[in-house]
Amino acid sequence: MSTADELPALHPYAVSPGASVHIIIACIFTLLATICVVLRFVQRRRSREFWWDDWAILGSLIFAFGGVLLCTLLISAPSIGAAGYHINTYTVDQLNTYFKLMLAANVLYNPSIALSKASILFFYRRIFSVDGQFLMFMRIMGFFVIGNCLAAMLGLIFSSNPVEAQWNVGMPATTINGPAFWAVMAVVNIVLEMAMLAIAQIKVWKLQLSPRKKFLISGVLLLGAFTIIASILRIVYLLTVDVSDMTYTITTPGIWTNVEMNLSIICACLPMLYNLFRRTRGKGNTTARSTDWTPRHQGGVVTIGSGPSKLMAPFKSSQYLDS
Fold first, then answer.
1. Which of 88, 188, 251, 273 has its CB 3.0 to 4.6 Å from that of 18, i.e. a possible disulfide?
2. CB atoms within 10 A of CB 217
């Protein structure tokens, strides 16, 4: 074989079709997530009630926007990462740059997902009465969310020995089974999401509310199932990745990674967006009655919606849950 045959084919210096789709979808979903977070803060400003769930979702958006989206744009740029082509068209320098950006994007995805879950847990703590069992559940789930995030980040960073071999393609190294590790971490994410969704449904159906309000609240919270669907599709496509041609086969899983991450932010904001929409639609209508997700302090009590109140555990002060 001649030396010319051993060199990679000329890499087309253009955004690949797969990368173009990735950029468009990532920008659309990140924009939607940003709009949802902005509207959430508009709603919170109106009620003058900011808490940890709001700051956690803002942190999730920062990682999604300033970390993953930025890396996606850089890795897709023809003069930088040039993603989306078969690996035999790249030079060694191009591959080194590509894998550095890929590692950064994968690592930064995890705190975004973890913070969106933390926001949901804080939201549950904010609106539901806190008994001993529920508080224990919150602590356990928080422990698993943090643990899963750290395990995923450290697993990605130290998946090769030496670590530098992850972006230095010519360096000898031992490496774990990447797709299997990604799939396991994704499964853990799904299990956590399903557990959080299930406990919310249990708490809703124990509230002293009318069946109509229970169905309404349950339906809004069940919209979080879209994140689970996206997570499942992400796993399916992660298992199709060919590590010997990762620059080409990772594109579709990357798209679903962006969709899942931003959907988790959007779904975490939906209860507040519903409340904002309800208030806007019912403005000026003094007879409108619906579920209000924003705790409103009234003389040392907190109410959710309208109607008689039910005593709940102390939270900042003596509080009640609207029923």
1. 251
2. 24
Q: Model-level pTM greater than 0.70? A: yes
Q: Write the CA distances from 240 to 84, 169, 258, 306, integer angstroms.
A: 15, 22, 17, 51
Average pLDDT, integer, range 261-290: 70
- If one counts every other C-beta atom within 10 angstroms of the C-beta of residue 50, the result is 12
- Amino acid, res. 74: L
Give me the helix-helix angle, 251-281 and 225-238, nearest 10°.
170
Amino acid at 200: A
Amino acid at 272: M
The angle subtended at Cα 253 by Cα 252 and Cα 259, nearest 5°, is: 95
Instruction: Give the alpha-carbon dihedral of 204, 208, 209, 210, to 10 degrees.
Output: 120
Report pLDDT digits (tens) over 120-169.
Answer: 999 888 877 667 788 888 889 999 999 999 999 999 999 888 988 888 88
What single DSSP character describes residue 12?
A: P
The span from the CA of 148 to the CA of 64, in Å, is: 18
Q: How far apart are CA 185 and CA 192, in angstroms?
A: 11
pLDDT tens, residue by residue, 27-72: 999 999 999 999 989 888 877 778 888 999 999 999 998 889 999 9
